Amino acid sequence: MTHFAAATHLEVMSEEPNTTDTRERDAQVEEIARRCGVRAERGRRFAELTSLRVGGTIDWLLVPETEEQAASVVGALEDAGLAWRVLGAGSNVLADDREHRYVVVSMREVKGEAQFDGERVSVSAGFSLPRLCVESARHGLSGIEGLGGIPGTVGGALWMNAGAYGHEIGEVVESVRVARGGQVVVVPGVEVKWDYRHTSFKEGELLLGCTLRLKPDDPEKIRARMEEAKQRRFATQPHGARSAGCFFKNPPGSGLSTGKMIDEMGMKGERRGGAQVSPVHANFIVTEGQDASASDALALAEEIRERFRREHGVELEYEVELWGADAEFKEAGGTEEKDEGGRMKDEGRRGEGETE
Ligand code: EPU
Q1: Relative to the CA of 244, which ligand 1 atom is closest?
Q2: Which of 226, 233, 283, 317 to mutate to test the pocket of ligand 1 (most atoms within 8 A of CB)?
Q3: Residue 197 C-alpha to ligand 1 middle, in angstroms?
Q4: What is the pLDDT of residue 327?
């Protein structure tokens, strides 16, 4: 599984911005950050902020620390017509190597503490999913122990309905807190469509946190199940490597494993520059070395897709999110459906799809 990102509020940008526009925009971002009391950083790189450890520079990184701050900051960006994307643990994102000219809102510091109340737990989007699984087990609450080894944030897990070993987070969500018009709005879990690695949340919706309703069980039993899932994961997936979890979805409804099929195509260990098809699990692309780039990983992924198409007649859908560098704000409050299937948006291939 993955690693996550949530909302995107972008559109293809055809021309380089002129300096006056850039200066004006920078002043607007600075003012918004100041007004919302949010830290603003420049010069960060996706290579530092994503688990694949590749990707270019980030124009502006805004780092809210509370759900309210996150809601107000994206509300203000929308009002100002400024493009933004949200990043969680960066564990499901392949961002290209160029300069990314939009605002990245990092949810990593919107974590607070998990609040347990009977069978419920309320948690913010930047909270670590593995930590939530451990704390839930400690409280004798079952339902997410299969997700224990997924190295992402709660927000990312919600955004794409993260799942492993028979559990998906959507099954236990009572409500999700979403940013709308600068405010925190509570959406009941039953109003969300929770599909395989996909939800009905829309582009431009920022997920702030959630309340889960879990089932009481013996903490020792929960811990044992969590340990078993972790051991299975360690035995079958690369551990400690720079990866974004499974790169492609399994062909929907087929019961087939993309990893097994890539393995049978003989592609384990195949390399493009600093990217490699993991020798442990063929649906993982791992990166190695200082010189690894996003284009190495993308070239390898596209080669896998091409061969898969030829040999199986199936178009593999990306499970990682591909983030192109050029983007501008689409439409305030834009609620376009998330893309399915994965392409760099700035290459004019919108609608063909995206999101371990
Ligand atoms: N297999 C191979 N070779 C490989 C990989 C797998 O032969 O290189 C075989 C395995 O031995 C097993 C079968 O294929 O018999 C299925 O493998 P696995 O149990 O690893 O399941 P998967 O379908 O490849 C899915 C999810 C994983 C999740 C596991 C466990 C997707 C795309 N992948 O993998 O999620 O951890 O099940 O529930 O849905 C992710 O979302 O990023 C991710 C890794």
Answers
A1: 42
A2: 283
A3: 14
A4: 61
Per-residue pLDDT tens for 261-274? 999 999 999 999 99
Active site residues: 197, 246, 319
The tokens of 244 are what? 């974004």
Strands 57-63 and 39-41: antiparallel
The 3-state DSSP class for residue 31 equals helix
Which of the following CATH numbers is that of domain 115-219: 3.40.830.10, 3.20.19.10, 3.30.465.10, 2.40.50.40? 3.30.465.10
Confidence band, pLDDT 50/70/90 cuts, at residue 20: confident
Q: Is 307 exposed, middle or buried (0-12, 13-18, 19+ CB in 10 A)?
A: middle
Answer CATH for 5-110+321-347 from 3.30.43.10, 3.20.20.100, 3.30.450.20, 2.60.120.460 = 3.30.43.10
Neighbours of 280 (CB within 10 A): 18
Contact 221, 289 (CB under 8 A): no
pTM: 0.89
Q: Domain 248-312 belongs to what architecture?
A: Alpha-Beta Complex (3.90)
Ligand 1 pocket check for 165: Cβ under 6 Å: yes
Ligand 1 site-directed mutation target among 2, 93, 232, 257, most atoms within 8 Å of CB: 257
**Does residue 156's CB lie within 6 angstroms of at least one atom of ligand 1?**
no
